Each structure stands twice: as structure tokens, then as C-alpha cells.
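Support request from a user on the community tier.

User writes: "When I paste my C-alpha cells into the form, the page sometimes reloads and wipes my input. The last time it worked, I copied everything first. Here is what I submitted, just in case something in the input itself triggers the reload:"
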């Protein structure tokens, strides 16, 4: 199999920029691109075990770097209509820290009130509501709503009324709270292909109709999956025409559902990979979307702020491409042991509380506690391995984030985003690294 033009381009980039990236970052940043999207997903449940709030974005300076804040999620119900997924987190909790220092006065509290304060401090920040997410109910309800013209009209009108016009709940209105909508339908089937496009077009039409009244331009995007088995059911060229940009997953190419370790978010394919040629890398995903007719400017590359992990991995090849006995156990957030109870009843655990994954903020602590770091220049990927328990992680760090942003610029892509903001370290190192090389 021949090496693709885009693979050659990326490897040339790596060769050209590695020394500057490692030794002279400020010089490289002087030639950074401009007007690229830098988005971040904020999970409404961040306020619980993770204790991560909208106020953290202001305190650590990340809000100064983002162009788009994407709030996850709202539900899609069978009516069809939009529905608040977590009223307490979204607009009821009076206990969240203030973003601006001013007290929340109600009747709206929770994350939505915090977002209002954040928007006052950052008037150029675009805030979107993400609809759906990885829920079987949301997927089924998207499919049912999109299957008829009446269903599409009803769903779009409901979601726009609730989140764009701001009819949040009885007695609670917040017009202008959200600047747009992100559709996260996971995942359309072959029978949904035409309806997926039609649903996006209905949202676009109704948002444009509202624009004619308010004079404000509203943003529409959708989440694009990685892996051909998922995006093959979307007419990418037609879908792209209806939206301002696409948030395209750049992760989950491998995970603890696999028995063999692999890179979860590699930029490039590699002949050393047992799965070589299957398109399980960002570069092949970019090629597929662009070949299908998606304009590069609408392609927004996703980076994970979490890693995938396995245990029972032999001490061969630093643990990469090796069989495992299962998902990695949940570590303590300080990297000094394992979480004794990952039901959420024990403080100090990695905040994902899930075997087989860990946040970037925890993984950087593992580096100082027995794990060795290995960078693969052929894939632009980084891994951690401790041979004693045989535990292996694949994740992104500032070096891979930097090189991925150079790739975004070289291929003329629209920008990048992260899932999810709470998983960065306390200083927002990953987001700030990306921002430095996206012109923010």
C-alpha cells in the first residue's frame, strides 16, 4: 500500500517542526494561523464528582482562549421535542460558584446562570447547546423525529424555542443564552441518511427565519463520527452545506472494548499497527470527509482530554499492540495508587470513575509515579506504560496537541475542539497549548 499524500505531508511537517516545537515554541507561534475555531465541550454533570464548574473556565483563563463553548447535553424525547436533561445542574442549583463575583439572583440558577455571567465577561464567546449524545433513547428519538416532515418541524421548533429563544422552563426565560445548536445524533443508520440531511436543513431554515426577525446569525453544527462504519450513513457533502462547521471525533479509534492495546487518537496510520489500513487514525478520517465533499474550513478536529487504558499487558514494545487482560483499573487522581471504590463514594479518584479511561489531569500525574512516556513520531501519538502491573494508557499531551494544530493549519481545516474541558489539568494546559497555535 502506498503512502498517501496527506501522510507524506504530515510526516514532513513533523520533521520540519519538531525541533522548533521542542526547543523554540514562541518562534513557531509567531506564524500561527488566525480565525480558527477552538471549541470545548462542557458536560453538565461536571459539577458533581469532578467539581468542575463554568467558573473554572474563568479562573484558569481557558475562557479567554475558547471561541466556542458547547454545553452537553439536552435530550431529544419522543414527542418529538427537546427536553432538559438535568434541571438541577442546568438551571436550579443555587450553590455553584459565581463566575463574575456577583451573586446569582434567580429565578434561573445552575450552569445556565453561570453561562450568562461568562458571556457578559466574554461577549465574543459563542455558546452552543448540544442535543442528544450517546443515549439509545436520544438515537431512537432522533430517527423517529427525522423520518417525517412534521416531526422535523416540531423538533426544530421545540429546540429553538427552548434554547435559542430561551423558554427554559415555566417562569424561567433566558433569550440569547445560546448562540446556536450542535446536533449529536449517535449514530444514523443507512435508513436515516436522507432524513439526517433533512433534519439539519429544517434546523437551518428555522434558525434563518429567526435571524430575519432578530438580526442575529445563529450557529448550527453537528457531531461527525470517526470510523467509516459510522460516517458512511451520512451524506457528508449535503449535510455540510446546512451547517457552519462539523465537530468531527478524533478519538476512540481504540479503547478498552478492544483486547489489544493501540493508539486511541493517532494522527497517522502505521505499518507497525496490526490494524493498518483500516482508517483508524485522524488523517484517514480527514481524507474521507474531504473526499466526500466537506469543505476543509468546516472540518473541526476533535482531541480527547482523556486516555484509554488496559491492564495485564506484557512488557513488550512499551505495551503497544499487545494483548491485555482487560480495562485498566481506575487510578487515584494524584497518580499514587488505585481508586478503592469507583462508585463515586470515595474522594480523590480519577473523575471519570470508569475502568479503561482516565483524564489527562490524572495521566500527567502517573508520569511521576512509575510510568514511562513513549512518543511515536510515525503516528504522532504518546503512551504511558508501567510494566510492574502491566498497565498501559494512550492519550494526548501538549506535544501531540501542538503537532495536531500544525496539521490543522497545513491542511486548511477550520479548527479544533476538545472533549471535555473538565478533564484538562487545573491550569488548562492542553487547551492553552492548542490556543497558542490556533491564533488565540
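"...and here is what came back when it finally went through:"
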Amino acid at each position: 500500500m502506498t503512502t498517501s499524500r496527506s501522510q507524506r505531508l504530515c510526516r514532513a511537517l513533523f520533521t520540519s517542526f519538531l525541533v522548533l516545537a521542542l526547543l523554540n515554541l514562541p518562534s513557531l507561534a509567531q506564524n500561527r494561523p488566525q480565525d480558527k475555531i477552538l471549541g470545548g465541550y462542557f458536560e453538565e454533570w461536571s459539577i458533581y464528582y469532578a467539581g468542575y464548574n463554568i467558573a473554572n473556565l474563568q479562573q484558569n483563563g481557558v475562557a479567554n482562549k475558547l471561541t466556542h463553548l458547547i454545553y452537553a447535553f439536552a435530550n431529544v424525547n419522543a414527542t418529538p421535542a427537546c427536553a432538559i436533561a438535568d434541571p438541577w445542574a442546568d438551571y436550579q442549583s443555587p450553590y455553584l460558584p459565581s463566575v463574575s463575583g456577583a451573586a446569582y439572583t434567580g429565578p434561573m440558577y445552575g450552569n445556565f446562570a453561570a453561562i450568562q455571567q461568562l458571556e457578559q465577561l466574554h461577549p465574543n464567546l459563542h455558546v452552543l447547546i448540544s442535543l442528544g449524545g450517546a443515549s439509545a433513547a436520544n438515537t431512537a428519538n432522533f430517527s423517529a423525529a427525522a423520518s417525517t416532515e412534521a416531526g422535523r418541524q416540531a423538533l426544530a421548533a421545540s429546540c429553538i424555542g427552548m434554547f435559542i429563544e430561551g423558554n427554559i422552563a415555566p417562569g424561567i426565560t433566558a433569550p440569547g443564552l445560546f448562540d446556536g445548536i450542535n446536533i449529536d445524533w449517535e449514530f444514523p443508520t443507512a435508513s436515516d441518511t436522507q432524513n439526517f440531511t433533512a433534519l439539519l436543513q429544517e434546523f437551518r431554515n428555522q434558525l434563518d427565519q429567526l435571524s430575519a426577525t432578530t438580526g442575529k446569525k445563529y450557529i448550527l453544527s453537528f457531531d461527525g463520527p470517526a470510523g467509516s462504519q459510522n460516517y458512511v450513513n451520512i451524506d457528508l457533502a449535503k449535510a455540510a452545506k446546512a451547517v457552519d462547521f462539523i465537530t468531527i471525533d478524533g478519538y476512540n479509534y481504540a479503547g478498552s472494548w478492544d483486547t489489544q492495546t493501540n493508539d486511541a487518537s493517532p494522527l497517522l496510520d502505521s505499518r507497525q499497527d496490526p490494524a493498518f489500513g483500516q482508517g483508524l487514525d485522524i488523517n484517514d478520517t480527514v481524507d474521507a470527509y474531504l473526499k466526500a465533499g466537506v469543505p476543509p474550513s468546516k472540518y473541526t478536529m476533535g482531541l480527547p482530554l482523556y486516555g484509554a487504558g488496559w491492564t495485564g499487558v506484557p512488557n513488550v514494545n512499551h505495551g503497544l499492540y499487545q494483548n491485555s487482560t482487560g480495562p485498566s483499573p481506575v487510578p487515584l487522581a494524584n497518580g499514587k495508587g488505585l481508586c478503592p471504590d469507583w462508585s463515586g463514594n470515595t474522594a480523590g479518584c480519577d473523575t471519570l470513575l470508569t475502568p479503561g479511561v482516565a483524564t489527562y489531569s490524572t495521566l500527567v500525574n502517573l508520569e511521576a509515579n512509575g510510568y514511562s512516556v513513549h512518543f511515536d513520531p510515525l503516528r504522532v501519538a504518546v503512551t504511558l506504560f508501567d510494566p510492574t502491573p502491566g498497565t498501559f494508557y494512550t492519550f494526548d499531551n501538549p506535544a501531540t496537541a501542538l503537532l495536531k494544530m500544525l496539521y490543522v493549519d497545513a491542511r486548511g481545516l477550520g479548527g479544533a475542539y476538545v472533549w471535555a474541558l473538565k478533564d484538562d489539568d487545573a491550569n488548562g494546559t492542553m487547551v492553552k497549548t492548542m490556543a497558542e497555535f490556533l491564533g488565540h
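Agent notes: The reload is a front-end session timeout and is unrelated to the input. The two ends are 39 Å apart (CA to CA). Residues 19-28 have pLDDT under 50 and may be disordered. Escalated to web team.
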